Amino acid sequence: MASRVSSKGKGKAGRGPDDGSTARCVKDWSTWAMKKAKVVAHYGFIPLIIVIGMNSEPKPHLSQLVSPV
Amino acid sequence: MGSSVGDAAAPPLPPPPVGLAVALPPKAEDKSERKVDYLNLPCPVPFEEIQREALMSLKPELFEGLRFDFTKGLNQKFSLSHSVFMGSVEVPSPSSGAIKVPTAHYEFGANFLDPKLMLIGRVLTDGRLNARVKCDLTDNLTLKINAQLTNEPHFSQGMFNFDYKSKDFRAQYQMGNNAFYGANYIQSVTPNLSLGSEVFWLGHQRKSGIGFAARYNTDKMVATAQVASTGIVALSYVQKVSEKVSLASDFMYNSMTRDVISSFGYDYILRQCRLRGKLDSNGCVAAFLEERLNMGVNFILSAEIDHQKKDYKFGFGMTVGE
């Protein structure tokens, strides 16, 4: 009975022995990547705009970034 | 003969203030014998901007309290903005509709505006980030990203849009968090009429919907209609009465909640000020004034009187910088 259950499982998967856990790995990895991407975007988006802006032509001076004039 | 109509892509007219961006054939003397060249129709407005003129006139950003915005340009493309707000904000609460919460925040923003790349970021004192990215990947394909990121988990939202613009149609594909997928398509059918439709699918709630929209505009008026399978019917009509004045009206019906709302408004664009006012079928009267005091200095007044709920909101503010 146990062998029948295991063969039914293998037939259903078709591709690999642990197909279900592979899909779960991919989903977990993509969730982890999205969480890290969200943190990176949260902290890094405004600095990214500032860096891109300070390097655009004509280059503004660093003091212009903080002075209110 | 057809080339004079097909040449509609570059009219030398000044841009109309209401923002009718559809390039219309020039009002030349041969109006009576103008033949429609169906292979050379103008590009329609994007699907989400179908009601753009009505929204601009009828839904100004009303606020309550003090608002101060300072925009400092460092060069042509790059600018920083500082914004202070002290006042009440309506927070939807499950118990009794919306409740007013007094808030005060400072918002720092950075904008980078390039013809090909636009980056706008705004961060508040409580750590919320509003990010908008618009990038032209090719001449016809544009990527837009819109995100609100918060420190609290599960409250962040993001949306990716891919826009494809062709000669007389536009298509858009959207992907958002919570497994939201949507697509829309709009096509110019005649030089004045464009029809579009959209579909969306919400993964987590297993809901899907489809909607249709139509927009008819001439250089004096814009009429739009939108129907969606979520039970919403929205109609709007904007008439440009003169160069400075336009009138708008709007009707929305929600068949699920049996809600009907209709509003009528005006939009005066004068040399020194812009005054928008509206009157609602819910007994709400609102007005929004932007007065140009000096070059780059604008004074803002906002008023909203809701007679039915007895809610009176008045706000004032100042905007310095472009």
Structural class estimated from helices and strands of chain A: mainly alpha
Poorly predicted regions of chain B are 1-9
The gyration radius over C-alpha positions of chain B equals 21 Å
How many DSSP H or I helices of chain B? 2
Strand content of chain A: under 5%
Could you tell me the number of beta strands of chain B?
19
Summed up, the helix count of chain A is 3
Give the end-to-end Cα distance of chain A, rounded to a whole number of Å. Answer: 82 Å
Query: SSE string of chain B, helix = H, strand = E?
Result: HHEEEEEEEEEEEEEEEEEEE
User: Could you tell me which chain pair has the largest interface and how many residues each side has?
Assistant: A-B, 19 and 23 residues
Membrane topology (chain A): Single-pass membrane protein
Protein name (chain A): Mitochondrial import receptor subunit TOM7-1-like
Organism (chain A): Phoenix dactylifera (Date palm)
Pfam family, one (chain A): Tom7
Explain this structure.
- The complex is a heterodimer of chains A (69) and B (322).
- With 69 residues, chain A is an all-alpha fold.
- Helices cover 77% and strands 0% of the residues of chain A.
- Chain A has 3 helices and no strands.
- Chain A is rod-shaped and about 65 Å long.
- Chain A starts with a helix and ends with a helix.
- Chain B has 322 residues and is mainly beta.
- Chain B contains 2 helices and 19 strands.
- In chain B, strand 9 (180-188) and strand 10 (193-202) form a beta hairpin.
- Chain B is globular.
- The interface between A and B is medium-sized, with 19 and 23 residues.
Topology, pairings included?
The complex is a heterodimer of chains A (69) and B (322).
Chain A: H1 2-13, H2 19-54, H3 62-66
Chain B: H1 2-6, H2 52-58, E1 64-73, E2 78-92, E3 98-113, E4 117-124, E5 129-136, E6 141-149, E7 157-165, E8 169-176, E9 180-188, E10 193-202, E11 207-217, E12 221-228, E13 232-240, E14 245-254, E15 259-269, E16 273-280, E17 284-294, E18 297-306, E19 311-320
Parallel strand pairs in B: 1-19
Antiparallel strand pairs in B: 1-2, 2-3, 3-4, 4-5, 5-6, 6-7, 7-8, 8-9, 9-10, 10-11, 11-12, 12-13, 13-14, 14-15, 15-16, 16-17, 17-18, 18-19
